[in-house]
Amino acid sequence: MSLPPGFLDELRSRSSLSQVVGRKVIWDARKSNQGKGDMWAPCPFHQEKSASFHVDDRKGFYYCFGCHAKGDAISFVRETENVGFMEAVEILAREAGMPVPKQDPKAQEKADKRTQLAEVMELAVRWFRLQLRTGAAEEARNYLDRRGLNADALERWEIGFAPDQWQGLWDALKGKGIEDDLILDAGLAKPSTKGGKPYDTFRGRIMFPIRDARGRAIAFGGRAMDPNDNAKYLNSPETELFDKGRSLYNVREARTAAGKGMPLLVAEGYMDVIALHGAGFEAAVAPLGTAVTESQLQMLWRIAPEPIITLDGDTAGQRAAMRLVDLALPLLEAGQSLRFAVMPEGLDPDDLLKAQGAPALQKLIDQAMPMVQLLWQRETDGKVFDSPERKAALDKALREKIKLIKDPSIRSHYGQEIKDLRWQLFRPKNSAARPAGRGGKGRWQSNAPQPPVPSTKASALATAADDRTTEHLREAVILAAFLTCPQIIEDFESGLETMTCADRTHAHLRDLILRFGHQGDAVLREKISDALGYDALENLITQRHVAITPCIRNPGDAEMAAMTVAEELAKLSAMRGLDAEIAEAMEDLTGVADEGVTWRLSEAARAADQATRTGQEDKAEYEVGDNGARMSRDERSALDTLLGNIKYEKPKGRG
């Protein structure tokens, strides 16, 4: 069966040989270098203990120095699976997500045509280079000189010039006996719509040849010399040789340089690639004036596991990066991702190299951010998260993006990283804890009231002398519940974030729980010991009012711990709600009040009482108010004092 031209090349480029071979061998970790695609293992074709079987993942070939077996992905599948050529192709095509074309009886004819087209393209390369030396190209030479391209660079990149003539190249190729169809099918000319001779595709442009991974000239990119031209850059049309979405500028040279350990850089255009190469960054490619496609992304990963995207420091560059993030998320694999080097605002790599030199660019490359960081910046930069609704919108947007990741391990790590970044953004403002004087590591000063002595017969929460002590004790119970059952933290993350802690030690514990609780009990305890001292947990959990809490006596009971936390958070919220209402009401009073003030105070007191009497440990002495609400004596006294000072006047207009 004959296959269409280019299909096998595409299949080999999209099939990772190391992944294909990796199903049959165990790699030698000492000799292998996955980052360079240089893999070694005992040979699967003969019995041996040494790692003499070599896979060059970048070139797509294997060779055994023992039995001399060699080949590519197709031959490896044929030999190890004992199948024929077409069946091996079908196996690899399924894995690569490529449909196998139907039988093409004209495959050889098409292959011959592609060879002819490549020969015509080489003739065009030579003709354009000759035109750059003519008088008509003086302005183009001056432009290239201003851009820093010397004679060596012009030779290295085979840069040419298309004169501003309608049939300049056409006549030159016809003079060499090239058929009309070959010139047109190579994309070098277009048929006239007025019945005349075909006319050149490129006119009045500096010409950059585009070569494929095999080194064949497959297309051109032309930069207009006329500043008023509608298209500053123009690429060849799609042809049998050229598929823009599957091609990269300088891919062959970049593959070789990356194989020597150079970072693979992705720039926007031809001039950036040329400038990068000239500055020593030889593994540089460009996606031919369009957004990176999935095929191009797979090509990049075949060259290097973590290409670095060099972003222009403008809005368009940022938008292009975000589109690339969305494209890459579903395709991520372990060790296969992207990093982003953001140029200073208004500069591209070429500009930066001219202004600040290679060290400045190298610094940006060394600081290239991982993709998760760019994802976070997209959702947070320039936004204010001052309400629960906005925070929830951020959470939703990030969850939707993380869901795109198919690999469960990577998805989990992204979720972890986002949690850490979220904690840093939303951590409570009073979270700082200060070391106490000259004390040793982990000694922290607390300004909280001291808890009752262990000999107290009744619950400390029930006999607390004041609201401040009661709040402190409730905080201790909540924190201890999280520490003994970290798996409930995620369910109460929002409540924990907004829980104000007057005690610095409690505030620090809360922040450590938020930041490290999701990493498990062992990690959390270690982090707390490092920050607060080895005895910090013991001091918290052995306090009598904490130790007698049912969920502390039964560590690991998630349901009981969740009920305790929910109840104590509600009580704290209610208590602090009453305090806030009283304080706000006092500010509102100017000697005359209406029903609104007294209603707010009554409802706050009712909420505080409702939350308080749900717990069995809070059986303090209560008085019953006129409205039937139950509150502590201190709360009642504060309310009576406030209401006693109110001169009430019936608001006008009310019955």
Brief summary of the model shown:
Residues 431-462, 609-636 are annotated as: Disordered. By secondary structure, the chain is an alpha+beta fold. The strands form 5 sheets. It has a 5-stranded mixed sheet with strand order 12-11-13-14-15, sandwiched between helices.
Question: Which structural class matches the secondary elements?
Answer: alpha+beta
Mean pLDDT: 81
Poorly predicted segments: 430-465, 589-594, 614-636, 641-655
Strand content: 5-15%
Give the end-to-end Cα distance, rounded to a whole number of Å.
Answer: 96 Å
Q: Tell me the number of helical segments per DSSP (H or I, 4 or more residues long).
A: 28
Shape verdict? elongated
Highest CATH level, the class of the domain at 109-289 and 343-357: Alpha Beta
Kindly identify the CATH topology of the domain at 109-289 and 343-357: DNA primase DNAg catalytic core, N-terminal domain
CATH architecture of the domain at 109-289 and 343-357: Alpha-Beta Complex
- Main beta sheet: 5 strands, mixed
What is the total tally of β strands?
17
Please give the order of strands in the largest beta sheet.
12-11-13-14-15
Helix content: 40-55%
Protein name: DNA primase
Family: Belongs to the DnaG primase family.
Keywords: DNA replication, DNA-binding, DNA-directed RNA polymerase, Magnesium, Metal-binding, Nucleotidyltransferase, Primosome, Transcription, Transferase, Zinc, Zinc-finger
EC number: 2.7.7.101
